[in-house]
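so i finally got all the pieces together for this one. its two components total, 278 residues if u count the protein bits. some of the lines might not be protein, just check the labels. i wanna see the whole assembly predicted at once instead of chain by chain like last time, that was a mess tbh
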Amino acid sequence: MQRAKEGDKVALSQLVNTYSERIYNLALRILRNHEDAEDVLQETFLTVVEKLHTFDGRSGFFTWIYRIATNASLMRLRKKKVIFHKLNDETDFQESIESRVFIDWSQDPSLNIYDKEVKQKIDQAINSLSDIYRSVFILRDIEGLSIKETSEILNITQENVKIRLRRARQFLRDFLSEYFQERMHTKND
Amino acid sequence: MIDNHKEEIKKICDIMGEDFDNPACQEVLEHLKQCPTCKVYYDTTKKTVLLCRENDCPEKLPDDVNNRLLKVLNLDKNFKESQKENRPS
């Protein structure tokens, strides 16, 4: 790291070699587009090269580079001005579960990602998640990072990570439930 | 009916992905044994996360993407050397 900070190109190349694939996949998960993911990958490492001398090691390098890549991805997502389903931190969580009928589709053996339609629905559900919820869901549930790491990368409190994660999961569950329940009914008819 | 389960459902979401050994998780898991509504919520939410995870396939960094990155960073000449240094002797 010290050599990379001093501008040693071989050491910088090693950093690129170590992190480029993870950063590319992170951007791909958030943006769901290969060209955009490549742009974020380049932007992230250009920032790393430019700002590496300011990296003080208070957070780990992984957290630091992930923060740069997540911010770059979210900026790009916001610029696209896609209209997402509205989920609001302030909305009372309790309101969103009013009058829901819970039908158990979790044991349906036909629900697997090898079914093209199921796969499409899952993609559609994640694509409908707005930026702040999508980033938490991807870092925590897909990348498997801890609540602490997620909060450090997104620069939000751990409590906020939990709230956003709860709402993201709730939204995805509801989105998929509608389709899966209908599918169960059609099969049983 | 759902009204009665709101607080429990909040707790369920909080414990998912956490260490199930901790006392807060145990309390919720105990509740699930006695409450079919919350159990359905728990199972379907867990399945949702699982399906999203299974649907996610990390990609290998394409060579052309890697080459363009190294070029932008002006590191294309140093990359092979760095790989040699990474190799165990």
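Residues 36-55 of chain B form the longest helix (20 residues).
Chain B touches chain A through 45 residues (CB under 8 Å).
anyway lmk what u think
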